[in-house]
User: Fold these one by one.
Assistant:
Number 1:
Amino acid sequence: MTLMAALPSASWAVVTSADRQVAHARLKAAGIAKPTILVSATDIERGKPDPQGYLLAAERMCVDPGECIVIEDAPAGIAAARAAGCRVIALAGTVEPGLLDGDFVVPNLAAVSVLVRSA
């Protein structure tokens, strides 16, 4: 089971610098279901490394940003997540792992697993 399939649909969001149409096309190409919450470039005034996108996603999910875990592959996104108060799993691949300032750095999503507990 993939990481995204293991998560309840309302428990994750996508925050992207792409516009909504491009984001949907990329998610579809990657085989990821359309998220319940998508924050795109058209939803915010300032992009990454500004935290606005992650703060808006947390607000829409009705959770404190400090309770969020962000998976990011770019330094600007990591900086945005950190500025929002989120914890970060840095995904290596597009940038040298040593340049990624995540709480954890993983080689790919297969290295991440999730345990879902009912409330």
Number 2:
Amino acid sequence: MTDLIATEALQTYARFVATRDEIDEGAQPWSVLADFFTEDAAYIDPAWGRIDGREALRNFFETSMAGLTGHGWSTPENWTMAQGSRLVSQWDQVLGHREDGSPWQVPGLSILYYAGEGLFCYSHDMLNMTHIGRTMRDMGWKPPEAFNMPPRNPNRDVSLPAAWTHLAT
């Protein structure tokens, strides 16, 4: 049973990544990523903190990514593994490209919990924000007008939503 759950989680995540790639290309809005989460999901972002609930996630994706899409940012996937309902993914946050064509990039990790029926109930993205800041400084990045700053004191609670704590075992 655990192998079936892991397989389903990996298949769902593959669809999530394909959707994210379409978003990076400008073919879909960021808000569609919320459709991969349960109504009570928690999403932990390294800059924005904890966001609870699918509709709050829908708004978060649009707000947090405003001014970044279409400026060379992308999130290529490197590897993914799953054990039961727990999935771990390693990806790169590409912030654009140097004049020689090489990417400005920072590695990242995500931990997701799969709730079944094609939905995740939890996602925790991890990036070294000092590395991000230094990369942005080195590349001379200036925020576009549409860019939104993350909150000054975000919620740093990383716990699973109460309804899904049984998945942690």
Number 3:
Amino acid sequence: MDFDIKMDGDDKLRQAFRTRVPGLDVRVITQAGPQDFPVSDISATGFAFADNPRGYSSGMVFSFDLLLGKRLFLGDLKAKVMRVLDKGIIGCNFMEMERRQEIKLDKLVLEVQKRLIELRKAKREAE
């Protein structure tokens, strides 16, 4: 017995937990050379950053590096622009990641999740 369940708005739901990682930047090669931008949020499937949409449009594919504490964390990545918001936020999905890159990114996001849970738990216990 096969069946499929689809709820209205499924396509608008987040595919993965998103978090902010302090000190995480995206380095994009622009016409003016490499430029670093703070990552607003990141997940296992994508990320967002602000660049007052200079030439970014939905569907655009670009190469970039992820820096953590100004040091290379993951290099030679590709992303597809999924949306460009009025406030200059560019929402992207990762493309063609190697398995080792996925694992490293998953570990980073998981570590941040663990810390957030610990902080919330400590806050509840302090109240």
